[in-house]
Specification:
The chain is an alpha/beta fold. The protein has two domains: 174 residues, Rossmann fold, CATH 3.40.50.720; 220 residues, Dihydrodipicolinate Reductase, domain 2. It contains 13 helices and 20 strands. Helix 5 packs parallel to helix 6 and helix 6 packs antiparallel against helix 13. It starts with a strand and ends in a 24-residue tail after the last strand.
Amino acid sequence: MSPVLNIQPHSSVNSKIPDLAIEDSQTVVIFGGTGDLTRRKLLPALFAMSEENRMPEAFRIIAFGRREYTQESFREEMADEIFKFQRVDGSKQDVNAFVQHLDYFKGSLDEMESFEALHKQMSDSSVYPQNRVFYLSTAPVFFGPVTEKLKGSGLVYNAPDEYWSRVVIEKPFGRDLESASALNQDILKLLDESQVYRIDHYLGKETVQNILSFRFANTIFEPVFNSQFVDHIQVTASETVGMESGRGAYFDTAGSLRDMMQNHLCQLLCLVTMEPPSGFASDAIRNEKVKVLQSIRVPALDDVRENMIRAQYAAGQMNGENVHAYVNEDRVPGDSRTETYVAAKFYIDNWRWSGVPMYLRTGKRMARKQTSITVQFKKPPMELFRTVECEHDVCDLTEAQPNMLTFRIQPDEGISLHFATKRPSMHMVVEDSELDFKYADHFRGTLPEAYERLLMDVMRGDATLFMRSDEVEAAWTIMDPVLRAWKERDSRIPLHFYAPGTWGPIAADELFEGVNGDWMNT
């Protein structure tokens, strides 16, 4: 077992650092205002921002939905939800005070009359601040039509104008390159790019943003982030959940590649491989991410056959309980070939990363919930030392272990570095040790929720953590050939199966053939 050297820096943040706050008074309208995302994430995030004195002096929130509520019954129900899912431990009194800023508007996304009525209601500037955020927490089929009605009813302004308006669009943004391009064209006919915020909640996670600060604020690491020193990089986003709560109906139309790899995993790969930006303005960072995506080798049919593994979980047991096979889950067709797991090997054809394999994988019903990025460095050109692996005082000779740098996105957020140290003995032998930084040990309190950071950035007009239109299309350009190959049901592209509670199919391990390493399963 490797010894762990815990990094214990100071435990408080410099009190002179100014807190970010939203200055512009504004109204936030949430379409899908009675949905699960609103209850679990959006309203608790806005409440946390209010409790931390980040909200503007004047703000209003409107939840747009089809259900029958009175103002009081809606506020009462949402107060219970906020209290249940809050991060900041606000009292009932605090929550009740917050929901006085919350209104319910009954309307239909299909009817222009609802938008015109909403426009009339929001025109009262004594109640509703005229700067506006519209959050589309709806089914993707409504993204284009709702944007069209927002523009047609006058709810969104032209840019620039006396007041500003911004539209937040949830994922998935398109199902393939063609639909994503069409959606971009439809929206950008109505809105300026500066008004559109395509959200990926992974980018709001504190540990994701720390990748940039780690790379570009520490001169000891950035010089070795290249093909001369790095053997390979792997990105994992594994989940233990399956199709609970009827999620199978949505997931079966998407699959793991659309649901996770095209957006979340590609974004993580961009952050760990991008060139240093010219600054931290939004376009400076997004420009570098687009360059990475445009440099990823687009898979040919042979690449899909050899470097892409798709699979479904079979029936089995997890934590002593029987688990259905994916095709036997609620609201999933019995003959479905939708992948619940996908693993891939990509190459970035640029000067920095030429020849370095990039491994991405994601799956449901896996052994552990884990999102992480591991950078594995090359072994020294000569093995001067014998290497041992020890469990207490019992040691065995083993192969030299490479240095590895791991970013743990969730859970157990932190960063660890594996390196060789001499084991105390009369022999010149080394063993693998670990420097481990944990957020929980260093910072008091809980980390901000991703939606808190992203909502605050929208309300402040900072688009750094949101995807630009060319960024979305560049990611789909990589994944489109894979989707087409799978759709054609090429017999040389099998659908594998794996037992629930494992790390996926054995076939995924074969992606490392000829490479010094395998999947990091913590």
